[in-house]
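Reopening this one. Same input as before:
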Amino acid sequence: MSESRGRLGRHLVPLLVAVVFLLPLLWMVSASLRGPGLAPASTIEWLPPEATTGNYATVFELLPFGRYLLNSLTVVALAVPLTIVTASMAGFAMALLERRTRGALLVLSVALLLVPVTALWLTRFLLFNWVGLTDTLFALVVPALAGSSPLFVLIYHWTFRRASAEVFEMAHLDGAGPLGVWRRIAMPNAWPATVAVAVLTFILYWSDFISPLLYLRDQDLYTLPLGLRQLQQLDPTGWPVMMAGAVMLTVPAVLFFLIVGRLFLGERGLGRE
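Same output, byte for byte:
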């Protein structure tokens, strides 16, 4: 009896979490199918009485959606692998430090997490403007060169600290340098951390609105979040069109999550075999 309750609990919690996240998505899709000019339904409406997909065509008429999509894909295609490399290297280096130095860096990393991001906007803008990075997509990717967030460095650090120190030491004795140990031993065993960091980094850069707003002036370089803002400015009362744009912004993120999750489950399955 207790075993069946435990099994039920293991399935019930993920189901409740899925419902919490899926309901807003379903509401957004439903709102995007309403007639032009109609406000979103005040209650949950699975399918509008006169559903139409014309709002999606309107998005393409009002915006150069393909260009904005390409810009967003370019940013995440650069930011995700750069973040994984830099954050994992920093986390691996921290894991190899002596205890006192490692503790000081951990305290510093946590302190940096507490710094509000708004405190960095002005200094970053002045710096990027001084070196000529404003109005370039590279300005959106620069944080990835430092691991994007101290949280990602800490995720890798905790992952590498859980690994056996003897494994790293044996590899070192076999003649492998720090870079070789990181590449051949540390990273293959940090697959769950890499999946988590990849998903979080994708969401961080894909949904970033403030950075493009601060650094980009050329509309040809706009990303999808800025494009969604343009929809609101063009027609503040056009809720179905804005919801259609929001759906189109959300779909790639959901697909990325599903693909990475499937790869992760496949890797775990191969590991068990």
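So the earlier flakiness isn't reproducible anymore. For the record, The chain has 13 helices and no strands.
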